[in-house]
Design goal:
Elements: E1 2-6, H1 8-13, H2 15-18, H3 40-53, H4 69-86, E2 103-107, E3 117-125, E4 133-139, H5 145-158, E5 164-169, H6 183-198, E6 202-212, H7 214-225, E7 232-236, E8 254-260, H8 268-285, E9 292-297, H9 309-313, E10 324-329, E11 339-340, E12 343-347, E13 356-364, E14 367-383, E15 386-396, E16 401-406, E17 417-421, E18 424-429, H10 435-445, E19 454-459, E20 467-471, E21 479-480, E22 486-487, E23 494-497, E24 502-504
Parallel strand pairs: 4-5, 4-6, 6-7, 7-8, 8-9, 14-17
Antiparallel strand pairs: 1-20, 2-3, 3-5, 10-13, 11-12, 12-16, 13-14, 14-15, 16-19, 17-18, 21-22, 21-23, 23-24
């Protein structure tokens, strides 16, 4: 049989990056970890600085046993909550019945959009479910913004999707800034997600973005940009060119798009049909994914029946840990995502270039297959200055560093893990749970479902992986320390064998 031999170069490159030793490492009988055993003060300080700057990495290393992971995750998340509570910012107003029309406002940072104040309605309808309310973000159309905002409140009260919570914002500015996907508004959506996740009132796995007309364009773009946070998205009376809203990113969410069959303004009906075609193609290829409800409604123009969308969406619950991920990392108003699902871009393969990158990850058992490709669009149809249809070309990338975060929902952390990237075997071995990965993933994703206990850092530029296929029969087992150095006589501590096993001496 074939096994994988790890040499020192490999472990110096990969294992040394994420495995750490601590007094906890040898405590095989430990079943819990309390805050006295974790650097909680240091963690909270890091979280506070991260909230202020959006930058930095937690570097303190502390290994954990598998039976300590759950308690440590809880402690890290509670530290995140405390840091957020202490952070000086405008908070969501207290939930009240949406029928009361309670509202407040957020001031968008001037560096993102000048003179931008976002009023919002926020409230619930119905009795809170055991896991918390579903949250609907409704984005209004491009008419008079006062009237459109008032209509949003009527819709929030009228849609038959209760029990639910609604966040109904008003666009801050008109003219060129009447776009829900611009960076000032991105700041607001990430603030909404982050603060909602902190609340026991909201179900983190039932968040939905939807909107009408201009809000349809916005919610379609946002669906692709924030898919990893969403259970579903429901643009209406819209239709974006798919270059603005890659279908691939919606693999793991429910997606609805409903447009009048006669709604030809800005080619909305044609673009909706192109979106439907692409979703159907993807669903045929991946039958269990790409849940969608896309229709051109015969005999209708821009005004359609809006009421079927949210009841359809509300049936779907997010899978926060999909084992099959497709993600086109595209720019939206000058911003790209650094992390999505369980992937984080440590070193952008693009460098100073501006092309798109397509990531595809498949996990089968404990084997991870990662593809990272440059993506180039060729416009095949355009009209009146609007690009309508495209063909994409892909090429493998050989630079950049990608961190793959892991938990027991994705792999079995009691067994060795292998990673192939662009066809090269770049990792094979045990993965050590640790506090550092929990803290950094918590700060990156601000998501209670994505406080990951472990990770593997993959360097796409590594030509020599340090992995060599050898015949196991007749081969003597030998060991390497966590710096990749051969250990002829292992002492007390953690070592890795040439057969891919982590061993505690």
């Amino acid at each position: 049989m074939k096994v994988t031999k790890q040499n020192s170069a490999f472990y110096g490159l990969v294992l040394g990056l994420f495995v750490s030793l601590s007094p906890l490492a040898g405590q095989a009988n430990s079943t819990s970890v309390n805050e006295e055993e974790l650097p909680i003060t240091e963690i909270e300080k890091f979280f506070g600085n991260y909230l202020s700057s959006g930058e930095g990495s937690f570097t303190t290393e502390q290994a954990l046993e598998l039976d300590q992971v759950e308690a440590a995750q809880k402690s890290v998340w509670e530290a995140w909550i405390r840091a957020n509570n202490a952070y000086d910012e405008e908070k969501l107003i207290k939930l009240d019945n949406i029928s009361l029309g309670k509202n407040s406002k957020w001031n968008i940072p001037a560096a993102l959009e000048s003179n931008a104040v976002m009023p919002y309605y926020y409230g619930y309808k119905g009795a809170k479910p055991e896991n918390g309310y579903p949250l609907f973000l409704y984005l209004h159309g491009s008419g008079n913004k006062d009237n459109e905002w008032a209509n949003g409140l009527k819709f929030a009260n009228g849609f038959e999707d209760g029990p639910s919570v609604y966040f109904v914002p008003q666009i801050p500015n008109t003219g060129d800034f009447y776009r829900w996907w611009q960076k000032g508004k991105q700041w607001a959506w990430e603030k909404l997600l982050r603060q909602s996740f902190l609340s026991k009132d909201i179900d983190a796995n039932r968040i939905y973005f939807f909107g009408i007309s201009e809000g349809g364009y916005g919610s379609q773009r946002l669906a692709s940009f924030y898919a990893d946070y969403l259970a579903g998205a429901g643009p209406m009376a819209g239709g974006e060119p798919l270059k603005n809203a890659p279908v691939e990113n919606c693999r793991n969410i429910a997606f609805s798009l409903r447009t009048g069959g006669d709604d030809d303004g800005f080619f909305r009906n044609k673009l909706t049909s192109y979106t439907k075609d692409e979703f159907e193609k993807m669903q045929k290829k991946y039958p269990e994914d790409f849940n969608h409800f896309i229709e051109l409604i015969p005999g209708y123009g821009h005004h359609i029946d809006y009421y079927p969308t949210t009841p359809w969406l509300s049936k779907y619950i997010r899978n926060p840990h999909p084992k099959h991920v497709m993600w086109e990392d595209f720019e939206m108003d000058g911003i790209t995502r650094k992390g999505f699902y369980n992937l984080y871009v440590e070193e952008d393969p693009r460098g100073t270039f501006t092309y798109r990158i397509y990531y595809m990850m498949d996990i089968v058992g404990n084997d991870i297959d990662l593809s990272v490709q440059k993506t180039v669009y060729n416009t095949t149809e355009s009209q009146d200055g609007i690009e309508l249809k495209f063909k994409k070309f892909y090429s493998k990338l050989s630079r950049g560093k990608i961190r793959i975060y892991l938990n027991n929902n994705l792999v079995d952390l009691t067994k060795p893990v292998t990673v192939k990237a662009n066809g090269k075997l770049l990792f094979s071995g045990m993965v050590q749970p640790n506090v550092r990965d929990m803290v950094n993933s918590c700060a990156t994703f601000f998501d209670p479902e994505r406080v990951f206990p472990a990770s593997i850092l993959i360097d796409l530029s590594a030509d020599a992986t340090g992995l060599e296929e050898v015949e196991a029969e007749g081969k003597e087992e030998c060991f390497y320390d966590l710096n990749g150095r051969p250990a002829a006589a292992p002492q007390k501590g953690i070592y890795v064998s040439n057969f891919g096993k982590k061993i505690l001496f």
